[in-house]
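REVIEWER CHECKLIST
Item 1: Sequence provided? yes
Item 2: Single chain? yes
Item 3: Sequence as submitted:
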Amino acid sequence: MTREIDGFTIGPYSADTIIAQRLAEPRHEHVFKYTPDGVELLKYAPGATTQGDQWAEDAQRYEGEATEAAKKYQDQLFGSAEAAE
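Item 4: Structure as written out by the authors:
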């Protein structure tokens, strides 16, 4: 199930990972592992339309936003981790 959250398209990547793809330029992808306890950034990569060598710096610049979007996605799937405490 793919969703748009805070400027990212987020959906399954593998059994225990999700991918967050930035919708606006500069486009890049963040891959997160998710558990009931939270999300952990595994890697980021250039998007299909990314050009040049700036993509890694751009991905780092948007890492916080991608992480927050991934947390919201996880909360929608599993419920809020904070609510379970």
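Item 5: Key structural point noted by reviewer: The chain has three helices and five strands.
Item 6: Recommendation: ____
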